[in-house]
Amino acid sequence: MSTGGHYGAIGFAAWLALMAMAGTAAAAQCGNSAAGFEAWKKEFAGEASARGTGSRAISALMAASYSTATISADRGQKSFRLSLDQFMAKRGGSVIASRGKALKRSNAALFASIEQRYGVPPGPLLAIWGMETGFGNVKGNQRLVSAVATLAYDCRRSDFFTEQLYAALTLIDHGRLSPDERSSMHGEIGQTQFMPKNVLNYGQGNLDSAAGALTSTANFLKAHGWQAGAGYQPGEANFGAIEAWNAASVYQRAIAIIGHQIDGG
Question: At what angle do helices 144-153 and 158-173 cross, to 10 degrees?
Answer without folding.
Answer: 150
